[in-house]
Amino acid sequence: MTGDNAERVTEATVGEYTVDVPAEGSTVEDPPNGGFRAWLVVSLSAAINFMLAIIVLLIGFGLLITTGSEEDIDLDEDERTEIFEHFTNLSNAYSIFAALFMVRYGYRKTVVFGALVFACTLLVLANVRKEAKDFIKLCFYCPAAMGSSFILLGSLIPVLEYFSTKRRRALLIVRVCTYMAQLLAAGLFFADKIRDSFYWRTAFLGAMALCVGIGILGMFLKDLKLTMNESPSRNTKISFVQRALGVHVLALFKNGLFYGLISLFFFFQLGANPLDSVFQDNDFQEHIGATSSIGTTIAYALVPFIGLILGSLLAWILNKVAAYPSEEFPLFRMIAILVGGASFVLGVASFIATNATFGYGFTFRLLYAICIAYIDMLRDDSIPKMFGPTNTRVVEGFVLLVVGVAGIIATEITGDIDEWQYDFVFCGAMLLLTAIGTGVILVLVLFVFDKGNRVRPLAASGNSRCFPQSSPNHAG
């Protein structure tokens, strides 16, 4: 029942559950993995992410760069920087709510709902008064970040679920479109006429218009659905917790790989997240001479976007030339080793950066962007393989939750540090601790959580292993 030529069926039995198959003939367990419909979804997701990346940059420019921000809304530079950083972190943290919403209502309604909330919030923000300082923060921290998270996850999950063997190629297309949008928007702001005449209200209204476009595109996303039905003949009932959390196998929350993965990215994000802010610190840029000429300014500003594109390409190329493990624990072990290795390299580089030159700062920022893009691609591609397609939405939501929470914690800590040198020291220390912690996590997963087969696969690609079969060794 795979692909465009699938035989039309209405339901199929998978493990202990009955799957209601949509008219298209494909389910989450048996995705199209190609064909016109699947690549159309990739195109829509790429376009949505392209627009979302521009929206986030417009918000950043509106808060931090454009004319009238401080005078009109009575927020100094530090407050506006804090608002933007918390907004981006909360956009990740709220993904767990987007995941639960998506389990119930699908990609289409998730993206459309997020776009509607985001657009309305931006319209309100474009018309706020000077005295509404606290209201501005509330809008960014709650509905704006919530809308952004719904759009982000609602456009990512279809790419993960519509493919099995071609997933990383689809991810590459979406990621590159995202980074190209950031590169394009950042490049335009080097034009003096655009930057000097760009008013912050204009930025928010432009972002609102793009949200409307996202909502329209989201309406064309087609859902792959899995419905859990009670089966009296099997005497199987779906618990309230399963229905509320949208998980088909409660063993997900007893699975060592689940806790190992979210712990891994929590600690990595604690050290990696603040580095981007330090790279943008005005004092650091002045120290290394990044603002000494227009050439160095442009090169230093654009290098992270180039690094993100290169990192995504590297993840795709290595997937083509190297045999990545397909079993769950070897795959987790590879992720842990790569995250630990990247943490060690970036941690050491952070300590050296306290005495950086322009060449070192440029290279370090490029290396950082490559590592971030590579690890993000590897993580998103691996989640369906490790936890099964039916758990992808919930696991991705939890992973982005801890990424966002770690970013908030790191922002609060580094926000109290006045000197950029000490920011690098903090990031270096956290990253080196992450490198050590990956070894500890691997040991815990292998020797502690493995009791009772808790690191056994919950589900894998293919109907035959979608759900664990009843057995004495199954932890369910």
H/E order of the elements?
Answer: EEHHHHHHHHHHHHHHHH
Structural class: mainly alpha
CATH superfamily of the largest domain: MFS general substrate transporter like domains
Radius of gyration: 23 Å
By CATH, the topology of the largest domain is Growth Hormone, Chain: A
Number of strands: 2
* Beta-strand share of residues: under 5%
CATH architecture of the largest domain: Up-down Bundle
Attribute tags:
476 residues, mainly alpha, Growth Hormone, Chain: A, 2 domains, two-stranded antiparallel ribbon, 16 helices, disordered N terminus, disordered C terminus
How would you characterize the overall build of this protein?
This protein is an all-alpha fold and 476 residues long. The chain folds into two domains: 32-223, Up-down Bundle (Growth Hormone, Chain: A); 248-476, Up-down Bundle (Growth Hormone, Chain: A), CATH 1.20.1250.20. It is 70% helix and 2% strand. It contains 16 helices and two strands. It has a two-stranded antiparallel sheet. A hairpin with a 2-residue loop joins strand 1 (11-14) and strand 2. The protein is globular, with a radius of gyration of 23 Å.
